[in-house]
Amino acid sequence: MLFVVTVRIGVIGVGVMGADHARKLDAQVAGAAVTAIADFDEQKAKAVAAEMRAATVAADSFELIGSADVDAVVIASRDSTHAELALAAIAAGKPVMCEKPLAPTAAECRTVVDAEAARGIGLVSLGFMRRFDPAYVELKRRITAEELGDVLVAHAVSRTVTSGPGGDSAATITNSAIHELDVMPWLLGSPITAVSWHSGRSSRHSEFRQDPQIMLLRTESEILITVEIFLNARYGYDTRCEVVGELGAAALTTPAAVVVDRDRRRSVAYPADWIPRYSDAYRLELQEWVDAIVQGRPSTLATAPDGLRASLVADALVESMNNGSMTVRVSGTFAGQ
Amino acid sequence: MLFVVTVRIGVIGVGVMGADHARKLDAQVAGAAVTAIADFDEQKAKAVAAEMRAATVAADSFELIGSADVDAVVIASRDSTHAELALAAIAAGKPVMCEKPLAPTAAECRTVVDAEAARGIGLVSLGFMRRFDPAYVELKRRITAEELGDVLVAHAVSRTVTSGPGGDSAATITNSAIHELDVMPWLLGSPITAVSWHSGRSSRHSEFRQDPQIMLLRTESEILITVEIFLNARYGYDTRCEVVGELGAAALTTPAAVVVDRDRRRSVAYPADWIPRYSDAYRLELQEWVDAIVQGRPSTLATAPDGLRASLVADALVESMNNGSMTVRVSGTFAGQ
Amino acid sequence: MLFVVTVRIGVIGVGVMGADHARKLDAQVAGAAVTAIADFDEQKAKAVAAEMRAATVAADSFELIGSADVDAVVIASRDSTHAELALAAIAAGKPVMCEKPLAPTAAECRTVVDAEAARGIGLVSLGFMRRFDPAYVELKRRITAEELGDVLVAHAVSRTVTSGPGGDSAATITNSAIHELDVMPWLLGSPITAVSWHSGRSSRHSEFRQDPQIMLLRTESEILITVEIFLNARYGYDTRCEVVGELGAAALTTPAAVVVDRDRRRSVAYPADWIPRYSDAYRLELQEWVDAIVQGRPSTLATAPDGLRASLVADALVESMNNGSMTVRVSGTFAGQ
Amino acid sequence: MLFVVTVRIGVIGVGVMGADHARKLDAQVAGAAVTAIADFDEQKAKAVAAEMRAATVAADSFELIGSADVDAVVIASRDSTHAELALAAIAAGKPVMCEKPLAPTAAECRTVVDAEAARGIGLVSLGFMRRFDPAYVELKRRITAEELGDVLVAHAVSRTVTSGPGGDSAATITNSAIHELDVMPWLLGSPITAVSWHSGRSSRHSEFRQDPQIMLLRTESEILITVEIFLNARYGYDTRCEVVGELGAAALTTPAAVVVDRDRRRSVAYPADWIPRYSDAYRLELQEWVDAIVQGRPSTLATAPDGLRASLVADALVESMNNGSMTVRVSGTFAGQ
Lengths: 337, 337, 337, 337
Fold this sequence. Notes:
Four copies of one chain form a homotetramer. The first copy, chain A, is of the alpha/beta class. Chain A folds into two domains: 7-127 and 280-301, 3-Layer(aba) Sandwich (Rossmann fold), CATH 3.40.50; 131-275 and 311-329, Dihydrodipicolinate Reductase, domain 2 (2-Layer Sandwich). In chain A, 36% of the residues lie in helices and 26% in strands. Chain A contains ten helices and 16 strands. Chain A has a seven-stranded mixed β-sheet with strand order 3-2-1-4-5-6-15, sandwiched between helices. In chain A, strands 12-11-7-10-9-8-16 form a seven-stranded mixed β-sheet. The first copy, chain A, has a two-stranded antiparallel ribbon with strand order 13-14. In chain A, α4 packs parallel to α5 (106-119). The longest helix of chain A has 20 residues, at 169-188. The radius of gyration of chain A is 20 Å and the shape is globular. The termini of chain A are far apart. Chains in contact: A-B, A-C, A-D, B-C, B-D, C-D. At the A-D interface, β1, β2, α6, β12 and β13 of A face β1, β2, α6, β12 and β13 of D. β12 of chain A pairs antiparallel with β13 (258-262) of chain D, so a sheet runs across the interface.
């Protein structure tokens, strides 16, 4: 047995997402170990800690961040806590991987961006995992290799089985569409500069929010993007993306390993939620985050300014929603851009 | 050999489309024979007539319409001639199958609708062949059978290899998008009441028109439809349509009979143009048109009012195009609706 | 209305297959009309005749064949009657389209081949409709165009929902596998010269026959073909064919016009039986048969010698089945080859 | 930084396969580090060692196996060395992951099986990585869940771009088909008891071996399996597997993340070799191997007896090949079964 350098990670928030991160970091990522868990539900924290190779339960999130046994922090607690905890990690000088969104509002995002800039080093990585999804990566590779020629339009669709309880129409934008608002500029190599939001019939399975929603996004490079977000699509968890260029088009396939013939149908299965769909993306994202820490270099994950940028686009969409689907320009300059 | 009743058909205009109609009517449709051909290019008329079992070349379109050897007329000449020729056929009391569009402007369409209404019987059928495409028919069957629950949004994409020479941005709407403007209301069972038109980067392979174009359509039933028309898509002739409902979604597949593995790729072929893609649709449309004539009943093809309706939606899109992508309501009432 | 030359067709046997032929000939084929129907079930004959434009019910099959109102004959009655009726049509000098198989035994097939040869003209066409299926035609086109290089192996699969009542293991070969025994040599351009028959577990849904069955066929050109025939596959009617060459492979796709997303599945539908799967093939086959009669030329349908050839291969497979899966050479020479 | 228990691994043979294992173990597997490399090509050994976090180059394979800095051994050297090195690892009492095959002959495999049995603990794991491929795992899950009913037949196809230089027809069986001989019994839950080997035309791109080859395998449970191995298939690296049961069928899909529309084609890409196709399988296999070592339990990888079993089936196939495709029973009993 060898004793080698290992990044000691504290995980704050072990709901579905945080527990999955903790398990991946401890059991599937090279060079890392989860050493501390914090959750307002102590039983849950204990249960997840017991699954780890060598983790203890922290009294609270701030104790975890400050702990001498924690080299780096994962924030997977409620959205409203993200900014405050990220600021604490920055203050402690520890690398932090914060689940999206960086904060529920652009204003709060800005405090983190500013704090990080003041500190002078990039400590904050954001969990926009699609950037590590092998399918998106392959799509970007083909765009970059100019297989499609200059990109002209793109179509994105995000559908989930159910929106779950609570949440209004704006939450669809800030919490779900936010993935598109990050990944499309990353994919197309150009920020979003103008948006409009559109709605028609809403599903009776959606109580409090317009569902589905249609959005038009325009990049600085004048690519027009249509986006459909449909949270109560019921049939399955389904992310689609097609990019259309001057020479051709490329799209994500429906990921499926097995096709079944039964009952007069040839079919592939949809996952019920994002966990299996993005399992590889999360693992690769966490591996890159750990590798970057070990090697003392910036990670290739989304940054705090990326998070602010996505948040500003989301704000513009909410403004369009509240103003008769008018076209809204995304507010542009900020520290860190 | 038996001598049975056969509908004698005159075909006006034997370019790519008209020649294809003539061949199908004479060689693949039961109960019909092409007996007369008219085309301003007499050599072309003669060549196509020679392929028919028993056709002569008419001196001109009006002679053809008036000929005692012609029971019914197909109009496949230039768009600008459609209305005039349709009016002549109505005046002659002969059933007419007019290629889309009924006329380049809604105003002209209206003259045909009014003339037909004055005559008191439905003589005009329109060549919106997608209504007979087995794939669209199957899609409509599933919607009608409520397999998807109430429809909420739909996505349509029409791509062609090249726009050919000439034509401006408005022509994309009135000549190409027009298929979507007819088929989507037919598919969804509700007329289009409001539209907006959007554009971004345009392909350098398109000289005189914005290409691609994005359109948002709203049906009376509040279904929101996104439409992409991309005439210089180059990679192939490709029609897509997805309908999303409360319980599920359904879409046209890429039609392909054979899949080939070669050169590190698994691929299916795209057709170069609409002829192979809609070959079955044209044949079935023509068979239904002939059957209806033989049986003395209205055909199930699109009607003159349908043509006017599509034209009014096209006009609204052109208005949006000329007015900063603003939302335009489709002008509503007309004779024959 | 015009009176044009029309082939008057008598249809013998109007079960599922014969009634479908009658309907297609009368309503979807140019230049043909069904004028006589014969069936041992007179009610059924009357019902189908009533659907035709101008058909009467014949007293029996032989009266139909001899009728002055019948120019050509379709045989779609029981397999055991095919040879006798084909002989009568040959004797009457009338073109005949006989459903497969030409006869249940090679010996009977030979009587038809010989009678036709004695007559000196090709009167018999066989209903091996796969030769007209657009997918098989496309597959053959790609082979002929040498897209795949020299063909080395092929894989064929025929699955149906249920075998229906009755029938033994040999019937699977002579009645179902017979389609493969005709289409594969046609596709690959080389006759089958040796075969072996293999079996393992049999489905409990098959009472009296081994099901599925695996066959190995070898063409004169040394292409090795695996065949699976599974009649009680239950999940759907499914024909598959893959051809593998030195440069690549090509295969039939699963034909489907619409894909549906529902209940955690993305699926396309299988037909319940062969009628929808081969609807186009039947129509095109019948059109070609009628065209050839009108034009006084041999049709491109399978011939009586083709039927005998397939039957000899079937006999060799039955011999292998009865002799421990040994390899059996197909008996080679016969009149008409 | 934390110091945690880590399995120190020595890798013997760093050709394409071994270098890939070393990289995955050191950079993508939790709880492992590569500490020693041996290769007869010292430059190559040094280069790969330099990529590791903390590895040295061993003088030779036996020094590596005996090294105090090596807890467990990966054997990825030439096939002919596998048995000898595995025996050395067993003698050293160290867990060993040996690439397939365990040995080129069943007799040599048996020496390893016996040596391990004599030692009394399971030290040998075999790199039959398909057992860890998520697609095969999903296929097995569906079989086990009885979604397909009792399995009746199966079809396997393994195609590669080129066979590379050297190798005869027997090598196709012992080196390539061997994967099918391991994975099909694992998938179907029943050992192979009888086989036959078949050949037809051979590709002109194959100099010294029959290519493609067709095999029929029969399991103890009487499932009949067709196998095609085609090493010079040229078009791509392609593994297919379909399992057909009483209620339905299930098959591996063509793995592809992105579909591209260009040049009149809609296509997905094939990999050039097995590395990308089975990248996940290798990683998961290595992680399980390491986890089992850390937890002191037998891994779920294939065992030495599994390797012997596959080798005995391969021998039977070679016997069939050398004896006119006769059916050969697999020799059955051995220590460790």
